[in-house]
């Protein structure tokens, strides 16, 4: 059975790593990653979408270490007739993010 969601490619928009030597080295400080997901489709055609996935760890100005990565994933949706538009957008958000996450994690 073929998947309705097709992953075409991804692109890296931005990668940033900063080690702030002016800040004190952390003593067991845990930094929480902040993820953001945005979906872009044409209003009249939801067969194609761009999923923007980013993660930010730390604070650029105050953290000893700071990481920011942002990528785009390009997707197509097949079998549109079998799904409502909101279901298709949910496919992009949930499944598109799951497909892109390993690339983000590797970067």
Describe the structure in your own words.
The chain has 107 residues and is an alpha+beta fold. The chain contains one helix and four strands. The chain has one helix at 85-106, and strands spanning 5-19, 33-42, 45-57, 65-77. A four-stranded antiparallel sheet has the order 1-4-3-2, covered by helices on one side. Strand 3 and strand 4 (65-77) form a beta hairpin. The longest helix is centred in the C-terminal third of the chain and has 22 residues, at 85-106. It is elongated and about 55 Å long. The two termini are 31 Å apart. The model has no long low-confidence stretch (mean pLDDT 87).
Q: What is the helix fraction of residues, given as a range?
A: 10-25%
Q: Let me know the average pLDDT.
A: 87
Name the shape in a single word.
elongated
- Radius of gyration, in Å, reads 17 Å
| Distance between the ends | 31 Å
What's the total count of β strands?
A: 4
Sheet bearing the most strands, described?
4 strands, antiparallel
Strand content: over 45%
Major beta sheet, strand line-up:
1-4-3-2
Topology as a string of helices (H) and strands (E) = EEEEH
In DSSP terms (H or I, runs of 4 or more residues), the helix count works out at 1
Structural class per helix/strand content?
alpha+beta
Query: Which residues form runs of ≥5 with pLDDT under 50?
Result: none
From the structure above, extract its key features.
single chain; 107 residues; 4 strands; elongated
Task: Please sum up the structure shown.
This protein is of the alpha+beta class. The chain is 21% helix and 48% strand. The chain has a four-stranded antiparallel beta sheet, with helices on one face.
């Amino acid at each position: 059975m073929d998947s309705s969601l097709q992953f075409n490619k991804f692109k890296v928009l931005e990668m940033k790593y900063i080690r702030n030597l002016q800040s004190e080295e952390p003593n067991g400080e845990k930094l929480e990653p902040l993820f953001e997901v945005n979906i872009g489709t044409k209003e009249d055609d939801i067969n194609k979408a761009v999923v923007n996935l980013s993660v930010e760890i730390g604070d650029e100005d105050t953290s000893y270490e700071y990481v920011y990565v942002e990528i785009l994933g390009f997707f197509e949706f097949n079998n549109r007739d079998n799904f409502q538009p909101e279901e298709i957008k949910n496919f992009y958000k949930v499944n598109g993010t799951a497909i892109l996450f390993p690339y983000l994690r590797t970067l």
